[in-house]
Amino acid sequence: MIEVRFHGRGGQGTVVASILMAKAFFQAGYYVQSFPLFGVERRGAPVEAYLRLDKTKILMRTNVYTPDHVVVLDPTLLEGVDITRGLKPGGWILINAPEPPTDLRAFATYKLAHVDATRIAIAHRLGTRTHPIVNTAMMGAFARVLGEPPLETVTEAIREEVPTKPDANMAAAREAYESVVLLGPVAEAASA
Amino acid sequence: MKKVVEGSHAVSEAVRLARVDVISAYPITPQTHIVELLSEYCSDGTLNARFLRVESEHSAMAALIGAASAGVRTFTATSSQGLALMHELLHWAAGARLPIVMAEVNRALAPGWNIWTEQTDSLAQRDTGWIQLYCEDAQEALDTTLQAFRLAETVHLPVMVVLDAFFLSHTYEPVDIPEPEEADRFLPPFQPAFCLDTENPAAFNQLAPPNAYMEMRRSMQDAMESALDVLDAIEDDYERLFGRRYGAVEAVHCDDADIILVTSGTITSTSRLVLRQLREKGEKVGLVKMKAFRPFPFEALRIHTAHAKKLAVIDRNFSFGAGGIFAQEIRSALCNLARRPLVFGYVAGLGGRDVTTDVIEDIYWRTKTSAHPEAESIWIGLHQPAPAA
After folding, report:
1. What keywords are annotated for this sequence in UniProt (chain B) (predicted)?
2. Of A71, A79, B6, B143, which is the most exposed, with the fewest CB atoms less than 10 Å away?
């Protein structure tokens, strides 16, 4: 079973991203489970959402404590939230950022990828310049990082489920899929 | 067709397929998503039903009592304080023998305010005459809701379909949603045995003096007692059409088990994983899932637990001054048997605290290593108070 934790802020579409990724993985033949952090959501406050994937029916019905990978929709969360909490060594950290973080010490045992989802969202007029909706771009990038599900299943999930600007959201997912930078294991990248 | 949907919406889809005539509800977290989608279906014509917005849960149930008395199919959903506010009318709906179906999303009662899962709200309504069926996942929530209408309309008692907050209600997972024509084959239109009719006037719910009341109550109990056989027959039909059945009680690996975990709701799913891991280690452990709480499945429980040495009952609920509610009822169901397992009652997961695989394993090992229960109720996972300075 693969467990993924999404970090974002209320209003960025974090929960929707985890649900749409569940739908895309389901189309790709996986059993899936997706749920938000069970609580009270507020705009701008840190939120979490979770995704489980498996080749057999998922029986685990508890919170996610030790994710295999994390996705960070908002780089400002790195300052206040321990995004590596429980993350299994060797797991991917996908961050929405134009450049990798300058201080990589906290990420030494993980693999790092980054994508400028904010720029992509603004270019495709998703949300506003001050509050871009980055979730669909992050979905495209995440599909590339994991090597699955196929990009078409991601764009298809967006087409079916996103009520506004489906074409722009699909284009953002495609652009992020192409432009995400896979740095790989942080320890190797740092010593290179 | 299989789709990834939220647990709440699995219930909404079943209500759509049941072609309900009247829905009345008042929003409360974590139930709201169920009636939210239904109100959309009513407004866009997907479902040809009247959606009555009311000022309280008490009024929601009152409206359905009126609608069901007029002979139409009815549905509502609620949680926690909302269910508590309905209490008076829950007795009325059952006593009037109205086949109302309600989804009840288990949520802890306040204060302190808590929106997370706990079964005390629904179990506090155990004496109202409602059938109560507890669900494990979104597929079961859909299937049980659809079956609930047929059950209610056959035995003339209201049915509560109960599901855990968040772990089920807010979790998205694949659900096989029947096509409308298939659902119609399973659930024909409601044909009331009696209803308000201006062409054929009659009086309902009049004074029932001592020489009549007791027989009315006995007839409700007869209906309750028949409900397990009726549910079984309904599940036969359902299985023929859709290939799924659940049972009022489900037993897993109970034949050779020394210790049987007894669970309800989503804790059952996680317990299946623990069971598999313990079995791989050679432990003789079984699992009994309690789906029906009212009527209480005495016979099935006795059969499945007859050979076990110990039962470990996990209660996500509590009756103050007594104990976990499933454990109490299970003890009383077994007490007259000449040979019966010891019943260990564990209280876990109150107010939505997570019941993890570690918690369930801990419960198993405590049960295995104890000759007798150390208390009436053993509370699992309590935070230890800080040592005195």
Report:
1. Oxidoreductase, Pyruvate
2. A79
In this structure, whether the domain defined by B249-379 belongs to CATH 3.40.50.920 is answered with yes
Per CB-CB distance under 8 Å, the chain A contacts of B168 are 61
Domain that holds residue A82: 2-191
Mean pLDDT of B244-251: 98
**Cα separation of A23 and A157, whole Å?**
6
**CA-nearest residue of chain B to A16?**
B172
**C-alpha separations of A137 from A121, B81, B353 in Å:** 7, 41, 34
Cβ distance B357 to A38 less than 8 Å, yes or no, reads: no
| A39: CATH | 3.40.920.10
B134 interface with A at CB cutoff 8 Å: no
**Domain ranges for chain B:** 2-192+211-242, 249-379
- Give contacts of B115 with chain A, Cβ < 8 Å: 40
Q: Kindly indicate whether the domain formed by B2-192+211-242 is annotated with CATH number 3.40.228.10.
A: no
Residue A38, chain B, CB below 8 Å: the answer is yes
| pTM, two decimal places | 0.96
- Cross-chain Cβ contact A34/B172 below 8 Å: yes
Give the pairing of strands A31-36 and A46-54. antiparallel
CA atoms of A110 and A91, how far apart (whole Å):
5
Residue A39's pLDDT is 74
ipTM of model: 0.96
